[in-house]
UniProtKB/TrEMBL annotation:
Membrane topology: Peripheral membrane protein
Protein name (record): Signal recognition particle protein
Residue ranges occupied by any SRP54-type proteins GTP-binding domain in the UniProt entry: 270-283
Known catalytic reactions: GTP + H2O = GDP + phosphate + H(+)
E.C. designation(s): 3.6.5.4
Residues that span the membrane, as ranges: none
Function: Involved in targeting and insertion of nascent membrane proteins into the cytoplasmic membrane. Binds to the hydrophobic signal sequence of the ribosome-nascent chain (RNC) as it emerges from the ribosomes. The SRP-RNC complex is then targeted to the cytoplasmic membrane where it interacts with the SRP receptor FtsY. Interaction with FtsY leads to the transfer of the RNC complex to the Sec translocase for insertion into the membrane, the hydrolysis of GTP by both Ffh and FtsY, and the dissociation of the SRP-FtsY complex into the individual components.
Length: 297
């Protein structure tokens, strides 16, 4: 995922480390290359600019240029700023799913990987946290999507809400809540309908469901390969329905990584998980330290 960026930055820092002493001009030259590498990775211009400014401020101080290993110092500063950019201020946040039954609303465009991710999340909560999970598809437009979720549920060994033809999304959300309460579930995951693009009808439906379900978490699923578009989709969903976090899918692909790098800074919302494949176990908690480490090699 971050191969290109990692390679580019590796080259810049290798040159920097080889020099014994550094002056401010060396640092500025290196940061110019870092800037190009970030832009090539599809990180937004504003985020790149802020990032470079923050690193420059810390890296051109006396302490760095006078240090015995100035190149390493600069790399450390870049690492720390990458972590800050990826996760914002606080530490990684956990899902708020205490007080059963906790509703989790999954939203996103069609094809983003929403249904697959609902299954992955259910599996994770069941296996790692021992939660009793109910999956419910609210995709009244596409019976095939409902079937897909039911099949996934069977495969991973969790329950799914029985499909009743003719119900609206809101009716299904109400029934899911009832069943989750009566059945003693810890969590119920509502997989909402997606559209190929954001439209008024989609947002209306998601807003209505959200109103009824009062979700503890509203997770937006976006395709990480779409770069800055993924970030724009997140901004729109957040403005219209409010999201508590993001899941970036297809991070196993060869995208340039810009979505991961810009998401937090632009939307203020944390990336909670990344999807790393089609299988139901291919979901990882997003860990800014690890990602920064991966980028810097
Ligand atoms: P939905 O329309 O948003 O519910 O999307 P789906 O869950 O049906 O996923 C669309 C396609 O993307 C399916 O073929 C999934 O197997 C695939 N997919 C989902 N997540 C990932 C991922 O993290 N990596 C890869 N490579 N494929 C994924």
């Amino acid at each position: 995922m971050f191969e290109n960026l990692s390679e580019r930055l590796g080259g810049v820092f290798e040159r920097l480390s080889r020099q014994g002493a550094l002056n401010e001009a060396d640092v500025i030259t290196a940061l110019r290359e870092v800037r190009v590498a970030l832009l090539e990775a599809d990180v937004s211009l504003a985020v790149t600019r802020d990032f470079i400014k923050a690193v420059q401020k810390k890296a051109t101080g006396q302490a760095v240029t006078k240090s015995v290993t100035p190149g390493q110092q600069v790399i450390k500063i870049v690492h720390d700023e990458l972590v800050a950019m990826l996760q914002g201020e606080g530490p990684a946040e956990r899902l708020k799913i205490d007080n059963p039954p906790a509703p989790i609303l999954m939203v996103g465009l069609q094809g983003s990987g929403k249904t697959t991710t609902s299954g992955k999340l259910a599996r994770r909560l069941k296996e790692r946290e021992g939660k009793k999970v109910l999956l419910a598809s609210l995709d009244t437009q596409r019976p095939a999507a409902m079937e897909q979720l039911a099949i996934l549920a069977t495969q991973i060994g969790v329950d799914s809400l029985p499909i009743v033809a003719g119900e609206s999304a809101v009716q299904i959300a109400k029934r899911a809540k009832q069943q989750a309460t009566l059945g003693g579930y810890d969590v119920y995951i509502l997989d909402t309908a997606g559209r190929l693009q954001i439209d008024v009808a989609l947002m209306e439906e998601v807003a209505q469901v959200s109103q009824i379900a009062q979700p503890r978490e509203t997770l937006l699923v976006v395709d990480g390969l779409t770069g800055q578009v993924a970030v724009e989709v997140a901004q729109e969903f957040d403005a219209k329905v409010g999201i508590t976090g993001v899941v970036l899918t297809r991070m196993d692909g060869d995208g340039r990584g810009g979505a991961a790098l810009s998401m937090r800074a632009v939307t203020g919302k944390p990336i909670r998980f990344v999807g790393l494949g089609e299988k139901s176990e291919a979901l990882e908690v997003f860990d800014a330290e690890r990602v920064a480490g991966r980028i810097l090699g």
